[in-house]
């Protein structure tokens, strides 16, 4: 279990610090390889971080942005992570970045996953930056407790691809990168806020059952060190 905790006084301070770190990582990637790639998560927690990051001075035209996971809903749905990123990240300076979605209008989610896997295959691997979130049930990405494809999704020896996930706690069907796609990111971060999420994280750290709390896979088996960012 290899992780570093960063704690801040409030969400605004966390957002600014995380944006500075991510911008630095992306700039280093552009300097080294003339391109950079970041995978971000949805939900309400990252909005401030997205807005901060969007203002950072960076060669954004050399940055590709994708999602860690997505609901199988159209891009204009209020439930869409694509829409969240479009509103809060792909603006200001970051409007010049290239966005690679996971949702595609296909007859089935399985077909959409195949399209998304092909569309994201050209992204730089490993990702330069992966920002994960965590739900109150201990899920991260769309690795939900007892999800129908959870075992395959968490298999680090499996293919790097976009997978489908159905679970009782997930609401809509989901598209998610496999753990093998995310685990070796050059900068791997978990962004959580609130005492409730901190309590969930402590419970995850104290146990080992990944089917109960899939975030434990990231804590225990990620190929890269994990940076945990938390604020009340």
UniProtKB/TrEMBL annotation:
Pfam families, A to Z: Glucosamine_iso (PF01182)
Domain (Glucosamine/galactosamine-6-phosphate isomerase): residue spans on this chain: 10-221
Catalytic activity from the UniProt record: 6-phospho-D-glucono-1,5-lactone + H2O = 6-phospho-D-gluconate + H(+)
Keywords: Hydrolase
Source organism, top-level taxon: Bacteria
GO MF terms, alphabetically ordered: 6-phosphogluconolactonase activity
InterPro entries, sorted: 6-phosphogluconolactonase_DevB (IPR005900), 6PGL (IPR039104), Glc/Gal-6P_isomerase (IPR006148), NagB/RpiA_transferase-like (IPR037171)
GO annotation, biological process: carbohydrate metabolic process; pentose-phosphate shunt
Known pathway: Carbohydrate degradation; pentose phosphate pathway; D-ribulose 5-phosphate from D-glucose 6-phosphate (oxidative stage): step 2/3
Uppermost EC category: hydrolase
Keyword Zinc among record annotations: no
EC numbers for this chain: 3.1.1.31
Purpose: Hydrolysis of 6-phosphogluconolactone to 6-phosphogluconate.
Protein family per UniProt: Belongs to the glucosamine/galactosamine-6-phosphate isomerase family. 6-phosphogluconolactonase subfamily.
NCBIfam families: pgl
UniProt protein name: 6-phosphogluconolactonase
Taxonomic lineage from the root: Bacteria, Pseudomonadati, Pseudomonadota, Alphaproteobacteria, Hyphomicrobiales
């Amino acid at each position: 279990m290899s992780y570093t905790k960063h704690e801040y006084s409030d969400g605004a301070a966390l957002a600014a610090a995380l944006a500075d770190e991510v911008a630095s990582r992306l700039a280093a990637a552009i300097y080294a390889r003339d391109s950079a790639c970041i995978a971000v998560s949805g939900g309400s927690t990252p909005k401030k971080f997205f807005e901060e990051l969007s203002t950072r001075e960076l060669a954004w035209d050399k940055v590709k942005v994708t999602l860690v996971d997505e609901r199988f809903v159209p891009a204009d749905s209020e439930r869409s992570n694509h829409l969240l990123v479009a509103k809060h990240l792909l603006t200001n300076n970051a409007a010049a970045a290239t966005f690679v979605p996971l949702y595609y209008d296909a007859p089935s989610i399985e077909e959409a996953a195949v399209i998304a896997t092909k569309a994201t295959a050209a992204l730089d691997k490993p990702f330069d930056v992966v920002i994960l979130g965590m739900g109150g049930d201990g899920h991260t990405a769309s690795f939900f407790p007892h999800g129908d494809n959870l075992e395959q999704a968490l298999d680090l020896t499996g293919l790097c691809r976009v997978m489908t996930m159905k679970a009782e706690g997930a609401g809509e069907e989901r598209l998610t990168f496999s753990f093998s796609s995310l685990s070796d990111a050059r900068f791997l971060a978990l962004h959580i806020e609130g005492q409730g999420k901190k309590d969930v994280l402590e419970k995850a750290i104290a146990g080992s059952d990944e089917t109960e709390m899939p975030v434990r896979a990231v804590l225990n088996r990620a190929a890269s060190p994990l940076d945990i960012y938390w604020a009340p």
